[in-house]
Design brief:
Protein name: Diguanylate cyclase (GGDEF)-like protein
Bound molecules: ligand C2E, magnesium ion
Domain EAL: 24-273
Number of helices: 11
Number of strands: 10
Organism: Streptohalobacillus salinus
Structural class: alpha/beta
C-alpha cells in the first residue's frame, strides 16, 4: 500500500499508514474465510462488437462483499490473495460461479456466448488446474467453447511449463486470451510461442489514445493480432472519442464504461449475439 502511494508523494509513518497496514492485515486474515462464508460476488461486464454494438460475451470480475467494510475491489484483495495462497480458493470459486451462471443463462434462452474468467499465475500453475476446470465444466454441463480464460504475461515466466497446459486447454476447446497486453516485458515472444485466441489491449493505452505514441502502439497491437489470426479487444473504452479512434484503427471488439460497468448478475441485460 505504502509502495503504491509512495510513487508521487511522501508517506509518513503516521495514522494513515498505520490505518492502511491495519486494513491490509485485517483483509489478509478475513480473506481466509471469505469463500466459505459466501462473501464473494461475481460481477459481469459485457464485451462488445464496437462496429455493430452487439454484445459478444462477458467478463467475470470478482468483488468481496465484506460484512463491515462493504464492497472491496479485486485490485485491492487479489494481490493479497496471491501472496497468501488464498487465490486458489478464490479463483476456483469465481470459475465455478461463472461456468454455472453461463449455463443458467443458456438454459434460460439468454443466448450462447463465452464468459471469460481471469486466472492468476499461482492458480494457473497448480498441477491439477486443467483437471479442476474439466470437472467444473462437466458438473455444470457447459460446452468448453463457452469458457474463456484470461491470463497475463506474468503467468509465462516459464514458457516450457506453461505451453503444455495451454495446449491442454486448447485441445479441450477452451478459449484463451492474453489480458493487459503490452504492459509486460515479453509480449511478442509470448505471442510467437503461445496459441492464444485473443489479445486484450491494456486500458492504459486506450485511455491515452490521444497521445500519438499510444495511438501508434494501439494500431500496432491491432495489426499484429489481426495478422496472427487473433481477435483483438480494446479494454477501458470510456468515451465516444476512444471508440472512434479504435474503429479508425481497425479494432472490432471492446469493453468499457462507455458500454457498461461490471454489474451484478441480476442487472446483466440480455446478450444479443
Ligand atoms: P482486468 O482483468 O484487466 O479487468 C479490467 C478492469 O478494468 C476491471 O476492474 C474493470 O471493472 C475495469 N474497467 C472496465 N472498463 C473500464 C473503463 O472503461 N474504465 C476504467 N477505468 N476501468 C474499466 P476490476 O473489476 O476492479 O478488476 C481489476 C483487476 O482485478 C482485473 O483486471 C483482474 O486483473 C483482477 N481480477 C478481477 N477479478 C478476478 C478474478 O476472479 N481472478 C483473478 N485472478 N483476478 C481478478
Ligand atoms: Mg481481464
Ligand atoms: Mg485487463
Ligand atoms: Mg489483469
Amino acid at each position: 500500500q505504502a509502495k503504491a502511494q509512495g510513487k508521487n508523494q511522501y508517506i509518513f509513518f503516521d495514522d494513515s499508514l498505520k490505518h492502511a497496514l491495519d486494513r491490509r492485515l485485517l483483509l489478509e486474515n478475513e480473506l481466509r474465510t471469505a469463500v466459505e462464508d459466501d462473501e464473494l460476488v461475481v460481477y459481469y461486464q459485457s464485451k462488445m462488437n464496437i462496429l455493430t454494438h452487439e454484445c459478444v460475451g462477458y467478463e467475470a470480475l470478482v468483488r468481496w462483499n465484506h460484512p463491515s467494510l462493504g464492497l472491496i475491489s479485486p485490485g485491492e484483495f487479489i494481490p493479497i490473495a496471491e501472496e497468501t495462497g488464498e487465490i486458489k480458493a478464490v479463483g476456483a470459486y469465481v470459475l465455478n460461479a461463472a461456468i454455472k451462471q453461463n449455463k443458467k443463462w443458456q438454459d434460460e434462452g439468454f443466448g450462447y456466448f463465452p464468459v471469460s474468467v481471469n486466472v492468476s499465475a499461482e492458480q494457473f500453475n497448480q498441477f491439477d488446474f486443467v483437471d479442476q476446470v474439466k470437472k467444473m465444466l462437466k458438473r455444470h454441463q457447459l460446452t468448453p467453447k463457452y469458457l474463456e480464460l484470461e491470463i497475463t504475461e506474468s503467468i509465462m515466466q516459464d514458457v516450457e511449463t506453461v505451453l503444455p497446459v495451454i495446449q491442454a486447454f486448447k485441445a479441450m476447446g477452451i478459449q484463451l486470451s492474453l489480458d493487459d497486453f503490452g504492459t509486460g516485458y515479453s509480449s511478442l515472444y509470448i505471442l510467437k510461442e503461445l496459441p492464444v485466441d485473443t489479445i486484450k489491449i491494456d486500458q492504459s493505452f486506450v485511455r491515452t489514445i490521444n497521445d500519438p505514441r499510444s495511438e501508434s502502439i494501439v494500431k500496432t497491437i491491432i495489426d499484429i493480432g489481426t495478422n496472427l489470426g487473433m481477435q483483438v479487444i480494446a479494454e477501458g473504452i470510456e468515451t465516444f472519442e476512444h471508440l472512434e479512434h479504435l474503429k479508425a484503427k481497425g479494432c472490432i471488439f471492446g469493453q468499457g464504461y462507455y458500454y457498461s460497468r461490471p454489474v451484478p448478475v441480476e442487472k446483466v441485460k440480455k446478450c444479443m449475439s
